[in-house]
Amino acid sequence: MKVQVCIIGGGPSGLLLSQLLHLKGIATVVLEKHTREHVLSRIRAGVLEHGFAALMREAQCGERMDREGEIHHGFFIAHGGGRMDRVDLHRYSGGNSVMVYGQTELTRDLYDGREKSGAPTVFEAADVALHDLTSDRPFVTCRRNGEALRVDCDYVVGADGFHGVSRKSIPAGVLREYERVYPFGWLGVLSRTKPVSPELIYASHERGFALCSLRSQVLSRYYIQVPLSDRVEDWTDAAFWEELRRRLPAEVAARLVTGASIEKSIAPLRSYVAEPMRHGRLFLAGDAAHIVPPTGARGLNSAASDIYYLYHAMLAHYQHGDDAGLDLYSQKALARVWKAQRFSWWMTTTLHRFPANSPYEDKLQATELAYLFSSERALGALAENYVGLPF
Ligand code: FAD
Ligand code: DHB
Known about the structure:
Layout: E1 5-8, H1 12-23, E2 28-31, H2 36-39, E3 47-49, H3 50-58, H4 63-68, E4 70-72, E5 74-79, E6 83-88, H5 89-92, E7 98-100, H6 103-117, E8 121-122, E9 126-131, E10 139-144, E11 147-152, E12 155-158, E13 176-191, E14 201-203, E15 210-216, E16 219-227, H7 237-246, H8 250-254, E17 261-275, E18 278-279, E19 282-284, E20 290-291, H9 299-320, H10 324-351, H11 359-372, H12 376-387
Parallel strand pairs: 1-2, 1-12, 2-8, 5-14, 12-19
Antiparallel strand pairs: 3-7, 4-7, 5-6, 9-10, 10-11, 13-16, 13-17, 14-15, 15-16, 17-20, 18-19
Helix pairs in contact: 1-6, 1-9, 9-10
């Protein structure tokens, strides 16, 4: 098979880039390790920046998102033993907002879009390997149903997530890695219940962080901070609801509607960046190059900014023979990635309980939130980062 751009990974990053390029007549293929059903069974992000929503529309996959997604103009932070303060995103970001729409639905829309437009996907691509990346004729090999497949291309895009092969194809001497691992994870539950609040609630509590989110007015998504040693099997639904209630202000806990979990999983929290994001004719995008702890809802949104830069760089190359965007991709993408890293680190350290903190550090943490809600400038800094910095 011969294409212009071979994209490894059929998650949101790879699918979005492929769809955008396909609509401009640039030939791509997506090689995905799993089945479509498997990819669509993962419950992950729920909050999209307005810039991401705009890219979905440009990819002609935004119709259902605009119909079923919810525009949120603010969220709450519960702190200080029972206080609930609202962050008015619209006011403090100069009129912006976020879209609440599940990653699962967005991925489904991208798969449906590419099926309609006839863009090819190879599912269950096993043993994907990248070759000759520093030559001008790179190629990718894999196996499908036991048969060997070779894809010749101009460029390879590694959009295969944190555990993919693409980043590992960059020689160790070239790649520089930056990492922080947090001493806890998030236990998440999805339930077919009415959300406890029409807007998200991030709760900082002495028992640990909690988050009340939603997918729709009949589908709720909740998270609680748990030690890394906990396993999902340790948590019955009843134990989860009881712990969540204890971390919420009393009047919120009183109106919490509980029900059977339809998904329950634990995600460890980690910050990670790999530099550079380009090696020869390989470009990394999304979780393949960087991950953030989920607190600031930046992960998927950082992937979208990579795709924005890469899409425009590839358009300039194929339409005008201009390679400046490709040459600057790593530098430009990383500048924004690091801002998302900073914000995610700040949200995480401000809202979680760190078991090793001294009483002094706990006081500083409480003061951070007290200061936030006493300063319009501090709220402005939070709001502009949460709705998404400009691309
Ligand atoms: P992925 O979604 O990981 O997709 C990579 C794809 O590549 C997968 O389909 C995988 O099967 C495939 N693949 C892997 N290896 C190979 C291989 N060898 N060959 C071929 N294919 C391969 N982000 C936000 O912005 N907002 C949020 O609210 C938010 N909440 C989150 C909550 C949780 C609990 C978690 C875990 C994450 C959250 N995120 C959030 C982060 C977000 O989900 C990720 O940043 C996003 O999935 C990245 O997309 P991606 O396409 O780069 O990678
Ligand atoms: C969700 C996840 C997040 O990490 C976040 O900050 C907000 C919402 C969610 O899954 O709904």
